[in-house]
Design brief:
Layout (H helix, E strand, L loop, with lengths): L17 H18 L2 H11 L3 H28 L8 H16 L12 H33 L3 H25 L1 H4 L8 H25 L20 H10 L1 H30 L7 H7 L2 H6 L3 H8 L1 H18 L16 H40 L4 H30 L5 E3 L5 E4 L6 H29 L4 H17 L1
Antiparallel strand pairs: 1-2
C-alpha cells in the first residue's frame, strides 16, 4: 500500500493535527516520569534518610536556586543564535532528556547509615543534578507550545493534550508505586524508591525522543516576525516586562496555587494515608480515581474554548476547586464523626471532594498552558519582543518557588504539630528515621485539617489569579491575535 502523502499548509509545513497533539503530550509525560516522585521526596528524606531536622531549610535553599536557574536557562535559550538542524528548543530538550535518565534517581540514593553531613551533601548534590537537566528540558518544552501553532484552537488542543500527558505521567506512578515502595508495616522502602526513579528516567527519555521526532515548529523563532534583529539580552528588563504582563502574572499565580495543592498538600496527604486512613497503598488509587473528571473534560476542551474562551472556562474551574475544597472540612470540623480505625465515611467524603476539585482542575489544566502561550503573545503585543524562553522561565521560576516553599512550609507545620517527636535515635543518640506507627491519633486529626487548609489556600490563589488578574478574555484575545497578525504581515 502506498504511503499517504503528508498534507502541507500554506507555509509548506506539515498541517497541524493529532500527531502534534500526541507528540506534545509525550513531552509532558516524559517530564512527569521524572517529576512524579518529587512528592515522595519529603517522605524519603525524613522517614528513610533521617533528614527531618534539615529538610525544610535545605529544600527551600535548593528550590530558590531551582527558581533562579529557570530564567537563567530561559534567557540562555532566547539569546542562543546558533542554527540547529531542527530547532534550538528541541535541541535543548534532547540534551535535558539525556541527563534525566539518571537525574531523578540521584535524588533517592539510599544511604541511611551515612553521617548527617554526608546525607546533606548527597541530598543537595542529587537534587542539583536532577534539577539542572529537568530545567534544560522543561523550560524549552513549555516555550514550544507557542511555536507549534499560532491558532487559538490549536493551542487549546496542545494544552489539553499536555494535560493528558501530565495526567498519565502522574497516574501511572501514583497508582503503581505505592504498592511497590511501601513495606508491610506501612514504612517506606528506600532502595525500591531508587530503583523506581531509575526506571522512570528511562521511560521519560523514550517519551522525549518520540516528541522530538514528531514535533513540527510552524511559528518563526528567529524574531523575523517583529522585524527586529536580536538585541543584547537584558534580564532585568525582561523581568520588568514579565511583571507588567498581566496574563503571565495571573496564570503564574494560579499555577502557584495549583502546585501548593499538588506538592505542599501531597506531603501531608501521604502521611495522612499512613496514620489517619491507615492505608498508604490506596492513596494512589484514590488520587487516580479523582482524575476521572479530567479525562472526561479533556476531549471537550477545544470546542468549549472556541465557544466560551480560556479565561471564562478557567474561572469556572477555580470555583469548582473551591467547592470541592469546602467538602474537605467536614470531618475536621466535626460535621461527620470519625475516630481511630473508623474513618471510612471521611474517606468517602475525601474522594467526593477530590472528584469535585479534579473537575475544576481538569477545566483549568486543559487551558493553562495555552494561556501561557497567549501570555507570550501578549508580551510581544505590548513590548514588540516575544522572549518565549524568558516569559515561560519566569513563570516556571514562581511555580518552582511554590513547589519548594509549599512542601517546606507544610513539613515545618507538621514538625511543630509533632511529626518528629517519635524519631528513632541510633546508638549514639543521633536521629535516624521516623516511625509513623508511633505518631498519635491527635496528630493524625490535626494533619487531616492541615490537608483541608492547604487545598483551600490553593483554590483561593487559583481564583484570584484567573478571575482577578488574568485579563485576556475571549474578546481581548481575538483583538490581540488580529493586531499581531497585521503587524507580522507588514514586516
Amino acid at each position: 500500500m502506498a504511503k499517504k502523502p503528508v498534507q502541507l499548509d500554506e507555509n509548506g509545513k506539515r498541517k497541524f493535527g493529532m500527531r502534534d497533539c500526541l507528540a506534545y503530550a509525550a513531552g509532558d509525560l516524559g517530564c512527569n516520569m521524572s517529576f512524579a516522585l518529587k512528592s515522595t521526596m519529603a517522605l524519603f528524606w525524613t522517614q528513610v534518610m533521617g533528614l527531618s531536622a534539615w529538610y525544610s531549610l535545605l529544600i527551600i535553599i535548593l528550590q530558590v536556586w531551582d527558581a533562579i536557574n529557570d530564567p537563567l536557562i530561559g534567557s540562555m535559550v532566547d539569546a542562543d543564535k546558533r542554527q540547529y538542524k531542527r530547532n534550538k528548543f528541541l535541541q535543548y530538550i534532547w540534551l535535558g532528556s539525556i541527563g534525566l535518565i539518571v537525574g531523578g534517581a540521584c535524588c533517592f540514593l539510599p544511604f541511611p547509615n551515612a553521617p548527617m553531613w554526608a546525607k546533606i551533601i548527597i541530598f543537595m548534590a542529587g537534587y542539583i543534578v536532577w534539577d539542572a537537566f529537568y530545567t534544560v528540558a522543561n523550560v524549552p518544552y513549555g516555550s514550544l507550545l507557542s511555536l507549534i501553532s499560532d491558532q487559538p484552537a490549536d493551542r487549546a488542543s496542545l494544552s489539553a493534550w499536555r494535560s493528558i500527558g501530565s495526567m498519565v505521567g502522574n497516574m501511572l506512578p501514583m497508582v503503581i508505586l505505592p504498592f511497590l515502595i511501601y513495606n508491610e508495616d506501612k514504612t517506606l522502602n528506600g532502595p525500591m524508591v531508587f530503583v523506581a526513579a531509575l526506571v522512570m528516567g528511562v521511560l521519560g527519555f523514550l517519551c522525549f525522543q518520540f516528541m522530538i521526532k514528531n514535533t513540527e515548529v510552524r511559528v518563526d523563532t528567529e524574531n523575523a516576525a517583529t522585524g527586529e534583529g536580536f538585541e543584547k539580552f537584558n534580564v532585568i528588563s525582561a523581568m520588568k516586562n514579565f511583571l507588567r504582563n498581566r496574563p503571565a502574572v495571573g496564570a503564574t499565580l494560579a499555577a502557584m496555587g495549583m502546585f501548593i495543592g499538588m506538592q505542599a498538600a501531597a506531603t501531608a496527604v501521604s502521611v495522612t494515608f499512613q496514620i489517619y486512613f491507615e492505608n498508604p497503598q490506596i492513596s494512589g488509587v484514590v488520587n487516580a480515581f479523582a482524575m476521572i473528571p479530567i479525562v472526561v473534560f479533556t476531549p471537550l476542551a477545544r470546542k468549549m474554548v472556541t465557544k466560551y474562551g480560556k479565561k471564562e472556562l478557567s474561572i469556572v474551574g477555580s470555583i469548582c476547586y473551591i467547592v470541592g475544597g469546602l467538602f474537605l472540612f467536614a470531618a475536621p470540623l466535626g460535621i461527620i464523626p470519625v475516630s481511630k480505625g473508623n474513618t471510612g465515611l471521611d474517606l468517602v467524603v475525601y474522594i467526593v471532594a477530590q472528584l469535585v476539585m479534579a473537575l475544576g482542575m481538569g477545566i483549568y489544566s486543559t487551558v493553562s498552558w495555552a494561556m501561557m502561550g497567549d501570555a507570550i503573545d501578549y508580551n510581544e503585543w505590548k513590548t514588540g519582543k516575544r522572549e518565549e524562553g524568558t516569559v515561560y522561565s519566569l513563570h516556571s521560576f514562581f511555580r518552582k518557588l511554590a513547589q519548594g516553599v509549599g512542601p517546606a512550609l507544610a513539613l515545618t507545620i507538621m514538625q511543630t504539630m509533632g511529626y518528629v517527636n517519635n524519631a528513632n535515635p541510633d546508638a549514639n543518640g543521633v536521629f535516624t528515621s521516623i516511625d509513623v506507627s508511633l505518631l498519635s491519633w491527635d496528630f493524625a486529626v490535626e494533619l487531616r485539617m492541615l490537608v483541608a487548609v492547604l487545598y483551600m489556600v490553593a483554590a483561593v490563589m487559583m481564583f484570584i489569579g484567573l478571575g482577578l488578574v488574568y485579563n485576556l478574555d475571549k474578546k481581548s484575545l481575538a483583538r490581540m491575535t488580529e493586531e499581531l497578525k497585521a503587524r507580522h504581515a507588514k514586516n
